[in-house]
């Protein structure tokens, strides 16, 4: 297994090289503990014993959780190759691994997020609608409810902007669209949407029944992409977190990212960085010296 180039290729097709390298290492640890023969037949109780073993070796719950993902990756590989028909720990979640801090290492790169735009659909109308929706998540970083509530009049194709009205936790803001979104939105608004609509609504995005899309519909759509990243937590929240973290990683000004995200408090944006809050306060003071 350790020299199996097909496993490495499988991981690289689904993860960044850095993540694939980590998973390969954690798979090696898992198989050293379990043995490959036993791992192929492992059940839920066997995985729990492995988790107990990891807890005794590592005090940080997040380290244990990450290494559990290595085991999950191995069993995904067994499913992929037909060596097993079930997954003993797909839905195993470690409660003590959850925390308030955003785990930047678990988020998605811009390249990974782009994969959500590339999926083929059986019907062209569904492909265009899904790309419009997904683009609002991965380019504008909208929250679920913000995406649901975008209206036709909020999209200005001439200016290349989309307006979001904000929510309890976010401020209203007008965001630039990517050039590739302009034609995409034009086709959806003028060609696809008029043929799909089944009720009188000004909401931009419609569900498959032609009615205004709801947050649950968006959640369901995002869940259908999980096969792209079977060992990671893909949802509208982690997509938004990834967009914000990527902007900061690219060196965008903290205040600019705060406005982009609609954060009311500087501390909300600061959670996506590893530097001190003073840098953000200095940036805010630079742009708004009178407070």
Shape: globular
Figure out the total of helices.
Answer: 14
CATH top level label of the largest domain: Mainly Alpha
With strands numbered from the N-terminus, the spatial order across the biggest sheet is: 1-2-3
Protein name: Phage integrase
GO molecular function: DNA binding
Domain Core-binding (CB): 2-79
Domain Tyr recombinase: 103-285
Tell me about this structure.
The chain is mainly alpha-helical. It has two domains: 4-81, Orthogonal Bundle (DNA polymerase, domain 1); 104-287, Intergrase catalytic core (hpI Integrase, Chain A), CATH 1.10.443. It contains 14 helices and three strands. The chain has helices spanning 5-12, 17-34, 36-40, 44-57, 61-81, 110-114, 124-138, 144-148, 179-196, 215-223, 236-249, 254-261, 266-270, 277-287, and strands spanning 155-156, 161-164, 173-176. It has a three-stranded antiparallel beta sheet with strand order 1-2-3, with no helix packed on it. Helix 4 packs antiparallel against helix 5 and helix 7 (124-138) crosses helix 9 (179-196). The radius of gyration is 22 Å and the shape is globular. The N and C termini lie far apart (60 Å). Residues 2-79 form the Core-binding (CB) domain. It comes from Nitritalea halalkaliphila LW7. Residues 103-285 form the Tyr recombinase domain. InterPro entries: CB (IPR044068), DNA_brk_join_enz (IPR011010), Integrase-like_cat_sf (IPR013762), Integrase_catalytic (IPR002104), Integrase_recombinase_N (IPR010998), Integrase_SAM-like_N (IPR004107), Tyrosine_recombinase_XerCD (IPR050090).
């Amino acid at each position: 297994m350790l020299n199996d180039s097909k496993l490495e290729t499988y991981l690289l097709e689904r993860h960044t090289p850095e993540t694939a390298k980590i998973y390969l290492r954690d798979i090696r640890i898992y198989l050293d503990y379990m043995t490959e023969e036993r791992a192929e037949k492992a059940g839920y109780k066997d995985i729990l014993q492995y988790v107990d073993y990891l807890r005794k070796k590592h005090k940080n719950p997040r380290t244990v959780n990450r290494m559990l993902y290595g085991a999950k990756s191995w069993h995904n590989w067994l499913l992929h190759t037909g060596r097993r028909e079930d997954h003993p720990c797909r839905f195993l979640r470690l409660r003590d691994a959850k925390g308030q801090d955003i785990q930047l290492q678990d988020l998605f790169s811009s390249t990974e997020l782009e994969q959500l735009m590339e999926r083929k659909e059986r019907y062209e109308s569904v492909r265009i609608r899904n790309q419009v929706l997904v683009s609002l998540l991965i380019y504008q970083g909208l929250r679920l409810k913000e995406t649901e509530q975008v209206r036709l009049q909020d999209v200005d194709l001439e200016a290349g902007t989309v307006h979001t009205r904000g929510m309890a936790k976010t401020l209203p803001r007008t965001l630039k669209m990517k050039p590739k979104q302009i034609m995409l939105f034009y086709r959806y608004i003028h060609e696809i949407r008029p043929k799909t609509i089944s009720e009188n609504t000004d909401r931009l995005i419609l569900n498959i029944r032609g009615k205004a899309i709801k947050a649950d519909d968006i959640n369901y759509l995002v869940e259908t992409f999980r096969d792209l990243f079977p060992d990671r937590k893909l949802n509208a929240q982690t997509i938004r977190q990834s967009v914000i973290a990527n902007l900061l990683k690219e060196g965008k000004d903290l205040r600019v990212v705060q406005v982009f995200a609609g954060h009311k408090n500087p501390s909300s944006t600061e959670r996506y960085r590893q530097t001190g809050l003073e840098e953000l306060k200095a940036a805010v003071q630079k742009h708004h010296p009178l407070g």
